Amino acid sequence: MSNPANTRSVSVEGAEAQQKEKGKETPKKLKRVWSERTFSTVGPGSIRGSIITLVGAALGVGSLTLPYAMSLVGIHQGIVMLFLSGGASFISLSILKKATARTDAHDYAELLYRTTGSKRASLGIDMIICVFCFGSLCTFFIFFGDFCPAVVQPLPLPEFMKERGFVLVFFALAVMPLTQLDKISMFRGLASLPVVASLLFTGCMGFFARENFQRAVESGLELFFFRLDVLMTLKANSIFLFAFFQHISAVFVAYELVSPSDLRVEKTVGRAIWTEIAIYIPLAVFGYLSFLSSTEGNVSRNYPMDSIPFLVCRLLFCLALMVCVPLRSYAAANSAVSLAWKWGILPGSPAPSVGTTGAMRGGDEERALVGVTPGEEEEQRKRAMSRGRRSLGPLFLLGALMVGLRVRQVAEVVALLSALLATTIMISGPLGIFLCSLRNGTAGVGTGVAVFVVVYLSVFALLGYTQALVTVAQGFGWL
């Protein structure tokens, strides 16, 4: 299969690599190219578009839990753990994106198969992504149902429009058209909403932080810098790590990236992670300093509902969910369609005995048995996947809506699923891909770097799965 990356047009941002190859350029020319690269329209597959999509996938209502995580471990320990979690995310994202560029895989499951050669691993990761993303969708709807009715209370609306059920149905109808977008790069225009919401919320917290801190100290609350409690550290680590969760979208973004060289991949991932850290640290610090140990799991609940600045922030976070929900719906539908294709139950898919995608078939002899060429097979797969994704996206959305209408308290179950499944997607999957690339000699790193990456990711995998066991033990009252 030829790599479509070789046939993609070079964007304006590719001018940087061309300038380096030319060697000598005048400062005026370099300045012109930089200005064009910075202020030109953000196109599909560009570095800036990819960064915006990744950051938008990571940010959202989950960032409101960071002050609570910092209250568990103290301000200095929390900052260190936030940097370490960002480092783990950077390493695993780089592995995924470089492997995607090398194999031209179109989604996480196919990437896992092309690098590990395991059909079971590919099927397993599709199932994990499908379950995890549907659970995330349900969480978003439950959050929206508990949060937004209070937000719309001050608005001059009829009473029936302020009911939880009406708000949820309205939200589902509003985001339904976004489930029909065929490429994840199409979300780049909306992906800035979570960033704007987080920045505005951080600014409001910082403005009132001194006053709230004095009030918290006067009430007898204590400021901690380090709290070396094992259980609290494990819980905080899960929250910090999952704040950088963007790995499902990363494979789609890497597949659509123009000229996906290692340099462009590292730029995209590095700038996305640094942007997230630059937003997370002040948000977590201001939130913790404002309320110390009384910080809520959702820090926005610490602020009065009638405060105009925070009312605006809450509305922006509600709009940010319009990005988070279709991104999760896109990933869930893609994995479900991938499973249907591999099992031969999707219209237009091959029989399960023949194979799945071109990468998972036995070779040209098996293709000849069903009378298709590799190119025809790939086009057939793309059309079937696109139709199936657009059909299943609304169904996942409606399913999450039904759960949100009927269920309110699923936090512990979702937390357990997140600890198990998100750790697998974020850490274990990339670690397995990296180990296979070391075995095949395609990792492109020295022995020292390889050992560091394996140990670093293994530690975070161990912490994530340990937290899952702790959650189960606490649920049964064993801890």
TrEMBL record:
Keywords: Amino-acid transport, Membrane, Transmembrane, Transmembrane helix, Transport, Vacuole. It comes from Chromera velia CCMP2878. Residues 1-30 are annotated as: Disordered. This is Amino acid transporter transmembrane domain-containing protein. One of its GO terms (molecular function) is L-lysine transmembrane transporter activity. Residues 45-426 form the Amino acid transporter transmembrane domain. Residues 18-28 have a biased composition (Basic and acidic residues). The keyword Cell cycle does not apply. It is a multi-pass membrane protein. It is found in: Vacuole membrane. Belongs to the amino acid/polyamine transporter 2 family. InterPro entries: AA_transpt_TM. The chain crosses the membrane at residues 51-69, 75-96, 123-144, 164-181, 190-209, 239-257, 269-288, 308-327, 391-407, 413-436, 448-470.
